[in-house]
Design goal:
61% helix, 3 strands, 11 helices
Length: 217
């Protein structure tokens, strides 16, 4: 089973690692492996966004998949797929996928065509997340028992806006991130940084971007 929400988070964090520690990865001889891992997920996410404003967020049934103890080549059960769109919102899923693709566009800045494809999809999915707000498990209920968005979608909206600012340098995305911070009350205690809760990551970026101020407390 493919769960798009934790997959996109994993891609974002992998890409973040490449961006922050490129020299160390290169010295360890692991940079190309890290880039390959990011691209494998980014390729999938680009395909999952089948058209503007439409993103497939799950393939397969979690219950059936997890109950099967055998080779994937021998799996014969149905493999349903589920998507989000303007009529079936999923701001957390769309926002995290936008963050992943924005981060990937930075990793692959040396491949202008691929980076542009990632960035175009990221901007589209951010718009979907912002303009059609809702928790993704309302549109993809099959994910609720596995990767429910317990922290809500507000952290992903903020997180994705910051990543788009880092990728594009466009002030409108930083303005969006700051407005989300105020609108949603993102500050406060962050108990973890995980596939569900991105607030701690937002704290780090705001601290880097403006030296702290009111956006890190």
């Amino acid at each position: 089973v493919k769960f798009g929400f934790p997959l996109a988070y994993t891609a974002t964090v992998l890409a973040w690692g490449v961006i922050e520690y490129e020299d160390g990865m290169k010295a360890a001889g692991e940079l190309e492996n890290a880039r390959a891992a990011v691209k494998w997920v980014a390729d999938y996410l680009l395909k999952a966004r089948v058209e503007p404003g439409v993103l497939y967020g799950q393939v397969g049934d979690g219950g059936l998949d997890h109950s099967y103890w055998g080779r994937p080549e021998e799996m014969t059960m149905d493999r349903p797929s589920a998507k989000i769109s303007s009529s079936a919102p999923g701001s957390d899923l769309a926002g995290e996928t936008a963050a992943a693709l924005a981060a990937a566009s930075i990793v692959f800045a040396d491949d202008k065509e691929y980076a542009a494809a990632c960035l175009e999809a990221a901007m589209d999915l951010f718009t979907l997340a912002d303009e059609h707000r809702g928790i993704y498990t309302a549109s993809i209920p099959g994910a609720a028992g596995f990767y429910g968005s317990f922290s809500g979608y507000e952290d992903e909206l903020t997180w994705s806006a910051i990543w788009l600012y880092k990728a594009t340098g466009l002030p409108k995305y930083l303005d969006k991130a700051k407005s989300f911070w105020s609108e949603f009350g993102i500050g406060g205690d962050a108990l973890q940084f995980s596939w569900d809760d991105k607030r701690a990551g937002c704290f780090v970026f705001f601290s880097e971007l403006d030296g702290g101020s009111e956006y890190t407390s």
